[in-house]
């Protein structure tokens, strides 16, 4: 990767008397521009020129001491030289040209902020940046470089969002059912499509099934391990997603929340009158009267809970903290990927969260794995497997192998759906490292860096996995589950 910067230092007055000192300064600038870099690496001043009230410079560099860092490094010692001896101040830095070159077999089609032009020739991708001194100080070029690395690495990784590695697989079990469970649920009247896309209404039978699964989680996990119930917000603001890291890429999948610009009925009278006359909601007019999005509906359940702990210190004797939430729905815009009850826009989930020292978080994860294994093997009797899932951005850092991991990462639980032969992810367990404690500034009394983990129990996914293998007839269900289910509730009849 190469950096080429052309810019100038704006001066408060002419500095013609300082030519010799400036020649000596720029001639010896290598010590400043290569500090911290390996031998032969760093930035270099290709040329410089003293103008009437400015000093223009051309800087070329590698990625060790990047050109924008180099020009910032020069400002203070240059200001000290001119100010003390010649009473000339350095008022600012102007950037007239800044290009970044990187070897790449492909171009990038997406527009990148602060990049005014992008071209791809001869295996080299060149970005022309539009930045000022404030952008340099705010590390905008560094973030562009990181984004560029991310996009190219993602493409080199084959476009996959994650790396998958099998950990364990159960013994084969003969399925008791080989049809789409959602279709059967609809045919029997246990569920019905809601008014919104990817949304279902669950009748007494389907709801009872959900409650039985929920009770299994409570009795087999929550109560034995000592988790305490909390209620997490289901409207999540941008501030929360910025701290949790979701603001980096959540946009295509969230349902946005926009408040009205005012509650004044007169402001909305036109909308209300339109509906009264036409019996149609004037959506375009409504759009004019709502404010900018303040965030979105719950996407990942645990981030808003961290506001409860934000900026606080936890006593050592209270660690690990174990909490869970089951208070409402989560929402993800699945686009064209919705199918049945296993891939929906609105879903029900029990979110399990724990935090403590690194060892405590890892130990808690193992306890949860034991609980899940007992449930899936002895109560639900599923054919299932576990896989280590590494996001591609961790894989590109050489952390895709299990032996190379620090312990942070995700385990996915997958179950076979006999009717189509596909494996469906129906459970996950993540050790998030220090991601959330750092993001929300949560500390331990001991001073040791806190870690955290989370595990979401999706009731739609558990139901799909269970019914997909066992069907809807209780006589085909495992005895341990049948005992917990009890009597089938009476459904809703229609004439």
Automatic annotation (TrEMBL):
Pathway listed: Aminoacyl-tRNA biosynthesis; selenocysteinyl-tRNA(Sec) biosynthesis; L-seryl-tRNA(Sec) from L-serine and tRNA(Sec): step 1/1
> What GO molecular-function term can you cite, just one?
ATP binding
Which residues are listed for L-serine binding in this entry?
300, 332, 349-351, 396, 428
Catalysed reaction equations from the record = tRNA(Sec) + L-serine + ATP = L-seryl-tRNA(Sec) + AMP + diphosphate + H(+); tRNA(Ser) + L-serine + ATP = L-seryl-tRNA(Ser) + AMP + diphosphate + H(+)
Positions binding Zn(2+) in this chain are 302, 351, 454
> One biological process GO term for this chain?
threonyl-tRNA aminoacylation
Q: Keywords in alphabetical order, please.
A: Aminoacyl-tRNA synthetase, ATP-binding, Cytoplasm, Ligase, Metal-binding, Nucleotide-binding, Protein biosynthesis, RNA-binding, tRNA-binding, Zinc
Q: What class of enzyme is it?
A: ligase
| SUPFAM superfamilies, sorted | Class II aaRS and biotin synthetases (SSF55681)
Q: Which InterPro entries match?
A: aa-tRNA-synt_IIb, aa-tRNA-synth_II, aa-tRNA-synth_II/BPL/LPL, Ser-tRNA-ligase_2_arc, SerS_tRNA-bd
Q: Name its co-factor(s).
A: Zn(2+)
Q: Which GO terms describe its cellular component?
A: cytoplasm
- Reported EC number(s) for this entry are 6.1.1.11
Q: What quaternary arrangement does the UniProt entry report?
A: Homodimer.
Please name the NCBIfam families in this protein's record.
Answer: PRK00960.1 (NF002120)
Tell me the protein family, please: Belongs to the class-II aminoacyl-tRNA synthetase family. Type-2 seryl-tRNA synthetase subfamily.
PANTHER family in UniProt: THREONINE--TRNA LIGASE, CHLOROPLASTIC_MITOCHONDRIAL 2, THREONINE-TRNA LIGASE
Outline what the protein does.
Catalyzes the attachment of serine to tRNA(Ser). Is also able to aminoacylate tRNA(Sec) with serine, to form the misacylated tRNA L-seryl-tRNA(Sec), which will be further converted into selenocysteinyl-tRNA(Sec).
Entry domain remark: Consists of two distinct domains, a catalytic core and a N-terminal extension that is presumably involved in tRNA binding.
Protein name, as recorded = Type-2 serine--tRNA ligase
Which source organism? Answer: Methanothrix harundinacea
């Amino acid at each position: 990767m190469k950096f080429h910067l052309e810019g100038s230092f704006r001066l408060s007055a002419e500095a013609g008397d300082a030519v010799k000192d400036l020649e000596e300064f720029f001639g010896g600038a290598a010590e400043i521009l290569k500090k911290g870099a390996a031998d032969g690496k760093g930035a270099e001043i290709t040329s410089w020129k003293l103008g009437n009230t400015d000093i223009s410079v051309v800087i070329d560099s590698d990625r060790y001491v990047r050109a924008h860092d180099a020009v910032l490094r020069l400002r203070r010692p240059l200001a000290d030289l001119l100010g003390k001896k010649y009473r000339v101040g350095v008022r600012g830095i102007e950037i007239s040209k800044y290009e970044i070159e990187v070897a790449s077999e492909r171009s990038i089609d997406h527009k990148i902020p602060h990049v005014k032009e992008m071209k791809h020739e001869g295996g080299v991708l060149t970005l022309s940046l539009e930045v000022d001194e404030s952008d340099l100080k705010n590390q905008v070029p560094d973030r562009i470089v990181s984004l560029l690395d991310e996009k190219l690495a993602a493409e080199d990784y084959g476009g996959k969002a994650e790396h998958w590695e099998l950990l364990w697989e159960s013994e084969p079990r003969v399925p008791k059912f080989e049809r789409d469970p959602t279709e059967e649920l609809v045919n029997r009247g246990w569920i019905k499509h809601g008014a919104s896309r990817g949304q279902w209404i669950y009748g007494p039978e389907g709801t009872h099934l959900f409650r039985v699964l929920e009770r299994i989680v409570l009795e087999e996990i929550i109560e034995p391990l000592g988790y305490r119930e909390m209620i997490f917000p289901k409207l999540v603001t941008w501030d929360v997603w910025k701290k949790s890291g979701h603001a980096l890429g959540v946009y295509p999948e969230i349902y946005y929340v926009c408040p009205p610009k005012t509650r004044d009925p007169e402001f909305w009278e036109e909308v209300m009158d339109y509906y009264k006359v036409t019996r149609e909601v004037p959506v375009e007019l409504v759009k004019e009267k709502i404010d900018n999005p303040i965030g979105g509906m719950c996407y990942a359940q645990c981030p808003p809970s961290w506001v409860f702990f934000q900026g606080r210190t936890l006593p050592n004797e209270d660690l690990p903290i174990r909490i869970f939430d089951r208070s409402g729905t989560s929402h993800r815009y699945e686009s064209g990927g919705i199918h049945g009850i296993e891939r929906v826009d609105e879903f029900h989930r029990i979110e399990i969260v724990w935090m403590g020292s690194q060892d405590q978080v890892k130990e808690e994860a193992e306890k949860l794995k034991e609980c899940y294994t007992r449930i899936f093997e002895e109560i639900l009797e599923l054919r299932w497997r576990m896989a280590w899932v590494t996001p591609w951005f961790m894989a590109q850092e050489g952390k895709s192998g299990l032996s190379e991991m620090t312990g942070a990462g995700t385990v996915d639980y997958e179950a076979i759906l006999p009717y189509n032969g596909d494996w469906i992810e129906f459970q996950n367990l993540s050790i998030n490292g220090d991601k959330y404690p750092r993001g929300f500034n949560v500390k331990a009394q001991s001073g040791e860096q806190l870690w955290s983990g989370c595990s979401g129990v999706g009731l739609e996914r558990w139901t799909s996995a269970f019914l997909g293998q066992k069907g809807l007839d209780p006589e085909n269900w495992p005895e341990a589950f049948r005992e917990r289910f009890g009597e089938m509730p009476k459904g809703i009849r229609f004439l």
